[in-house]
Amino acid sequence: MLIGNLSQLFSNPGAVLMQLAYTIPVILISLTLHEWAHAYAAFRCGDPTARNLGRMTLNPIAHIDPIGFLSLLLLGFGWAKPVPVNSRNFTNYKVGETVVSLAGVTMNFLLVLLAGTALVIIGRVYPMAFLNTALITILVYVISLNVTLMVFNLFPVYPLDGYHIFELLFAKVLPVRFFMFMHRYGYWILIVLLLLFNRLGFSPISVVRGWVFEIINKLIAI
């Protein structure tokens, strides 16, 4: 959670504003690249819908959902505007659905890998650079945010990316009414899950995030 406690905003506004100055650009870049990856993948698979609607762009304005953006700031999870995709245009339906669904989380993984590699190199080659609080804060938040986006989007709940993979895998196994139910109530199921994770103080997101930082720490210590 970026703003863990709203009271901090009033007790120490300078620190919060400085934190926002570091993290807002990371949020804009991460969400934009996630959605651009979906649009580009769809285009390469034969569907020009997103490109024709101006979504195959690196302009954050085209991708940012105001509520999802604020949710990321206040609650630690959020979303961008979904990229419009017409799967009937794919040259190969199954390949297209899989590639497009995984494109966003793949981009998040690459950003985690890039920032993690930078931290390891800094820690092993020039550890004094860790005194540069701004640089380290930005790299750590790039990792934390993109792990969150990656794991969050892999939940097999509509309308997240993971659900499209789930539907593709089990469309012939589960009854149609199950998928109709998920399309109708997926948003509510997602909200309940997130509230439950928050209540328990435990979630797959925090577990994976912990694994990633543990790996980075071990690599720096080698």
Key features of this structure:
globular; 222 residues
Describe what this molecule looks like in 3D:
The protein has 222 residues and is mainly α. It has one domain. It is 72% helix and 0% strand. The chain has nine helices and no strands. It has helices at residues 6-11, 13-44, 49-52, 66-75, 93-125, 133-153, 161-170, 176-200, 204-221. Helix 6 (133-153) crosses helix 9 (204-221). The chain is globular and about 55 Å long. The chain starts with 5 loop residues before the first helix and ends with a helix. Mean pLDDT is 87; it is low at 1-6.
Q: How many structural domains can be distinguished in the coordinates?
A: 1
Q: Which stretches of 5+ consecutive residues score pLDDT under 50?
A: 1-6
Number of β-strand runs: 0
As a percent range, the share of helical residues equals: over 70%
Oligomer: single chain
**Overall mean confidence score, pLDDT:** 87
The biggest beta sheet, please?
Answer: none
Task: Please give the alpha-carbon distance between the first and last residues.
Answer: 30 Å
Instruction: Indicate the overall shape.
Output: globular
Structural class by secondary-structure content: mainly alpha
Radius of gyration from the alpha-carbon trace, in angstroms: 19 Å
- Proportion of beta-strand residues: under 5%
What's the order of the H and E elements?
HHHHHHHHH
The helix tally amounts to 9
